[in-house]
Specification:
106 residues, single chain, alpha/beta, Barnase, Chain D
């Protein structure tokens, strides 16, 4: 299975997400930067099996990218050889500094 990691540590918006996605996946030239296009390309044009992992997501990003997560959940239900997971950044100390540790998987 091909696993692609998208690091959310430096992502602020969907434009940043699509830029990183295009760097990691061989998307067709006609790919549009929107959720419908992402669903379509996973459902019919990408080489499967494929697993996407979103790492270092913040709680704020869960809200910003809620539609993305919902779209990928729908695609995961429909496309047999596609899966994804996301992992929240968590900190060991009280001030929010330190290494990220354990994960939250969807």
């Amino acid at each position: 299975m091909n696993t692609i990691y998208i690091d959310f540590a430096d992502l602020g918006d969907y434009e940043d997400f699509y830029t990183q996605l295009k760097e990691k996946l061989e998307l067709p030239a006609h790919f549009g930067d929107n959720l419908d296009a992402l669903s379509d390309v996973i459902s019919g044009e990408l080489k499967l099996p494929l697993h996407l992992e979103f790492v270092n997501m913040s709680v704020d990003q869960l809200e910003i990218f809620e539609d993305l997560l919902t779209t990928l959940e729908d695609v995961e239900d429909k496309v047999e050889d596609f899966s994804f997971a996301y992992y929240l950044e968590q900190y060991d100390d009280e001030e929010g500094e330190g290494e990220a540790d354990e994960e939250t998987e969807q």
